[in-house]
Structure formats: structure tokens, C-alpha cells
Design goal:
Shape: globular
Strand order of the largest sheet: 2-1-6-5-4-3-7
CATH class of the largest domain: Mainly Alpha
Largest sheet: 7 strands, mixed
Distance between the termini: 58 Å
Structural class: alpha+beta
CATH topology of the largest domain: Butyryl-CoA Dehydrogenase, subunit A, domain 3
Number of domains: 2
Strand content: 15-25%
Oligomer: single chain
Helix content: 40-55%
Number of helices: 13
Length: about 325
């Protein structure tokens, strides 16, 4: 059934919110785009004359599409090469969605998106819709064909799985960039001491190459080990320049509301390192280098203005 101009406008008005929901559910901007496109196809095929609240209908359709993808993704993770990390999303990308509350900002952080991999598909959908988008348990229950009591139980289980004793440090865009700048200054100093001052004692470094580029297959644990790794990462080397195909240029930016280092070669992003800033120091150095998870960021980067790079490596 052909869509009217009004029905197309209804969907396009809802698209940013649908993309923000799908990204939090799937941890992948590319998969989120696909899920929203599948939702559009369902909207196009639906008997829309019986749809009383289009946005609620679209959210329900999207949630069920994401549930199916999450079930499939759990199988794919078993065969994923190396460590899996979410796809980083740079500041200004509408896919980040609302960031008015602490819960909304936290739900899109790299640390939380990684933690949410622990949840069952139902738990993740309930948690995201409730915590980040403020849907009532009654509304979520209707979307997922659950009882309201069951929905509340699923939400409580999800909260328990995600409980953490360490609060993240709230940072604005300017503060995030300052943290990134301090980190790069310490990393290129050639010494571990400046890095040790910035890192939390139980800091962890995780790299995701997806089998496409070289990345460590296990996390690096502890302040000393992470400092040594980062120092080596920024140490000049002809072999590294050959491996990445040129001279990397490092910028300070913000991804998922957190300080980030964006590394480019010839205008193409080859890595985004997101820093998990806490009251105890930088607790996480999460390096996304899988080219499949950097395409959207590269497009957004090319379409926006940037200051001078912090560092030109090797």
C-alpha cells in the first residue's frame, strides 16, 4: 500500500528517535540503520488505517526487529574474532538521541553498551526503553507482549546485571576534549609516569579489530600494563606506519558523550579510542579499529569542521 505524504512525514519525524533506540539496543550504528529501514518497510506494508498511535506502532515494530537481531547477534558473538566493542558515535550525530538526564547519557556510553551485552534480548529492550526513553512498564509490556508484572521483573533483573560501584565522571564537551588532550600529551611523552597519573588502578584496555586489522585478542588489565601498552602504541615506528598505510593524525573529540581520540590516515578514520573517565581516573581505554564500525563516523567527520590535530604520529 503506497504511503501518503503525511504517512512518510510521520515516519521521518520518528526516525531520529527510532535510530537512537536501535543504536542503544544493538550497539551498532550500521545495524541500527538497517533496523530502522526494516521498520519503514513494515510501516509501508501495514494496514495503517487501523494504527491509532503511529509512533507507538513504529516503536513496537522496531523493538521486535531488534529483539530478533539481538538473538542472532548472541550467536555471532561466539565466532567474533577477538574482543567485541560497540560502534562509537561521534558528538553531533543524531543517533546518540536524548541526553537530558544522567540515565540517558549513561545508556549510550561505551562502558554501558559493553555491559549491556550481558543482558538477554528481552532484558536489554526493557532496560533501554524504560531507562533511556521513559516508557512505562505498561507501554513496554504492550510492545513486547508481556504482562506488566513480568516487565517489571525483567527490568529489575537487568538493573542487577548492570549494577556498578564506580560512577562515571560527568563531563561536558569542553571537559571531554581537555581530558583527551591530557591523555595524548601523556601518551606521546615517551614515559609511563604521566600516563600512570591519569589512569585508575584497575584500568583496562580493550581493542576491537574484528579480524580485519591487528588488535590484541585479550583485554590488558591494570594501570601499569595499560600505561605500557599506550606508550608503545604512540611510539614512532616505520613498521606501524606501513601497517596502517600512512601517517596517523590524532584529534581530540567526543564519542558517546566521553573523551575520545580520533585517529585518521588520509582523511579516513582508522581508530577511535574512547576514554572512560571516572572519579578514580581513566578506567577504560576502548579502541575501536574494525573498519566496519568506523564508516558512519568517517562520513560524519568528513562533513564537519575540526580544529588542529593534537599529534601527528610516527
Amino acid at each position: 500500500m503506497a504511503l501518503s505524504t503525511y504517512e512518510v512525514d510521520v515516519f521521518e519525524d520518528a526516525r531520529p528517535r527510532l535510530e537512537a533506540i536501535a543504536y542503544r539496543l544493538l550497539g551498532s550504528a550500521g545495524d541500527a540503520e538497517d533496523a530502522v529501514q526494516d521498520t519503514f518497510l513494515r510501516w509501508q506494508a501495514a494496514d495503517r488505517g487501523y494504527v491509532e498511535v503511529p509512533v507507538a506502532w513504529l516503536t513496537k515494530a522496531l523493538s521486535n526487529i531488534c529483539l530478533n537481531q539481538l538473538t542472532s547477534a548472541r550467536v555471532k558473538r561466539v565466532s567474533y574474532v577477538g574482543q567485541w566493542l560497540p560502534e562509537p558515535v561521534l558528538a553531533g550525530d543524531p543517533m546518540l538521541g536524548p541526553a537530558d538526564t544522567v540515565e540517558q547519557r549513561e545508556s549510550v556510553s561505551m562502558a554501558m553498551l559493553t555491559l549491556m551485552e550481558r543482558l538477554s534480548p528481552n532484558e536489554r529492550v526493557v532496560y533501554v526503553l524504560r531507562e533511556a526513553f521513559g516508557y512505562t512498564h505498561a507501554e513496554i509490556a504492550g510492545m513486547l507482549d508481556l504482562s506488566e508484572a513480568n516487565c517489571q521483573q525483567v527490568y529489575r533483573r537487568a538493573k542487577q546485571h548492570l549494577a556498578t560501584d564506580r560512577p562515571r565522571r560527568p563531563v561536558d564537551l569542553a571537559a571531554a576534549r581537555r581530558i583527551a588532550e591530557e591523555f595524548v600529551t601523556a601518551a606521546v611523552s615517551g614515559r609511563t609516569e604521566p600516563l600512570l597519573k591519569l589512569l585508575a588502578g584497575d584500568a583496562v584496555s580493550i581493542g576491537d579489530g574484528g579480524g580485519k586489522v591487528h588488535a590484541r585478542t585479550r583485554p590488558i588489565l591494570g594501570r601499569d600494563a595499560v600505561a605500557k601498552f599506550v606508550r608503545g602504541l604512540f611510539h614512532p615506528s616505520d613498521a606501524k606506519a606501513t601497517m596502517v598505510g600512512g601517517t596517523p593524525v590524532v584529534f581530540a573529540d567526543v564519542a558517546n558523550g566521553e573523551p575520545a581520540l580520533v585517529v585518521l590516515v588520509d582523511g579516513r578514520i582508522i581508530g577511535i579510542a574512547v576514554l572512560d573517565a571516572t572519579d578514580e581516573g581513566i578506567a577504560g581505554f576502548r579502541l575501536q579499529a574494525n573498519p566496519d564500525k568506523l564508516a558512519r563516523a568517517t562520513r560524519l567527520w568528513a562533513a564537519s569542521e575540526h580544529g588542529e590535530p593534537l599529534h601527528i604520529a610516527w
